[in-house]
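Lab meeting notes turned into a lecture example. A postdoc, R.K., suggested we walk through two folding results consecutively so the class can see how the record format repeats. The first protein's sequence and structure tokens come next.
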Amino acid sequence: MAQPQQERSRTTRRRLVEAAVECLAEHGWSGTTVAVIAERAGVSRGAAQHHFPTREDLVVAAVVQVGEAQIEQLRGQVRKLPSGASRTEYVARMLLDLYTGPMFRAALHLWVAASTDATLLATLGPLEARVGREAHRVALELLGVDESEPGVRETVQATLDLARGLGLANLLSDDTRRRRRIARQWARMLEQALPVPGGNRSGVAFVSKTS
């Protein structure tokens, strides 16, 4: 039975976006053309340009895909969160693993390209800022803290910045074992710095006001 036109169109768009992420991760910005993406997706260049007239249009969709996938990756593990003191280390590991894998590699190529391409930066900057805000909000929710408390916002942001740095270290070789050791130590520091469940010295758990 043939797919309805609308469903075929959605399928083609999804394949193009997924192919764009894969091509960016493998070939970087300069090597990721509409023709290369279309070939990876198994569609004609004309079909690709029907859905995404320019490479920048495809990149915007890819950035949104990468950001949403990262957030869903976090949200998908919420049900697995343990209670008590072990929760903090589990969350720390989740956050420090956030910027690893092909999707982060694709995003990194775009960041580097945007640093010298004003047009790409104008498109990419606002999208990255939105993704960053959402990642921050989800981190607050996972840790169960209120960023109106002194130092909480900065500590959570430092955690995400650390995660990006560890993501860079993981690009050249598998850094999993070292990242696990760092996550354990960082969790201890979070328990001292934040009023988190299991590590809360005052016995009060805070909930993010943004949730």
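The second example is placed directly after the first for contrast:
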Amino acid sequence: MRMFFLLALIVLLSTSCASIFNGPYKKVQVHTTQAATVYYNEGSVKTVDNIASFEVKRKKDTMQFSVLQDTSMRTYAVNRKHSFAFWSNIPLKFGVGMLVDFTNPKRFTYPSHIYLDSSNTNKGYYTFDKKLPKGRWEFQVDMPFVNLFHREDPYGYRELQEGFFGVGLGINHFYRNNTYLNFSAHSFLLSNYPLPPPFIVFEQKSQKEFSYQLALSNNHRIQKLA
């Protein structure tokens, strides 16, 4: 069993998340304020309900596209960034997978949604919808890497517990524009080792503790932080 565990761990660490989960192309949607034509990579796409969709090849270069609205043509440049799959090599594979991904352009990504608003930003676009409408529903998934809990009993005894990994599910309902209620449930692992999640099951049961949480909160969305 120990040999199987060791071999499986070596195989897992020798692979990379971006190379496995990211395809060579990324789907991008451009949102305009009126009917338009988007030109990208010597092709063109007309908007449907003010949205144009096209496939972008992952690479380290800036993505550029042009938009024709009425008789006005404007060109936009969007910087690439490292994808979630690339950064997930840190908690899942102790960063070893980054070495495999480092020479692979699949580690890069571009915004899934680009909202054009040339009158308000220097870039001429946002990567998030500034105004989420009333009546919208969202599904939320949380996967924390590090958990810290501070406990204090009525007698003044204090304890700091730490753990790694967990999962949470939630629902957001926008009852006003950009204002929503969130109901979520979370489970956190405590007193466990920072092993890749598939191998946590091999730990002795006495070494793991679980903390559960239900939350109901009222929230106002200001902007996207990242």
